[in-house]
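Hi support team,

I've been running sequence recovery on a batch of backbones for a student project. Most finish fine, but this one hangs at about 90% for roughly twenty minutes before it completes. I'm not sure whether the input is malformed or the queue is just slow. I've pasted the structure tokens below so you can try to reproduce it. Let me know if you need the job ID as well.

Thanks,
M.K.
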């Protein structure tokens, strides 16, 4: 998961990431919902 961490002050180029990437999750969408912290996700 460290691969997805962004250090403070660093920029992220979203074109470098596959929007359909599922390397860290092998389940279904419903199973993954609620596994994130909405306080840390913009708009969540």
């Amino acid at each position: 998961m460290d691969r997805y961490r962004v250090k403070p002050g660093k920029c992220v180029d979203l074109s470098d990431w596959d929007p359909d990437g599922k390397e860290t999750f092998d389940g279904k969408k419903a199973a993954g919902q609620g596994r994130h912290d909405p306080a840390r996700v913009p708009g969540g």
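--
Follow-up from support: It reproduced on our side and the slowdown came from queue contention, not your input. Helices lie at 29-32. No action needed from you.
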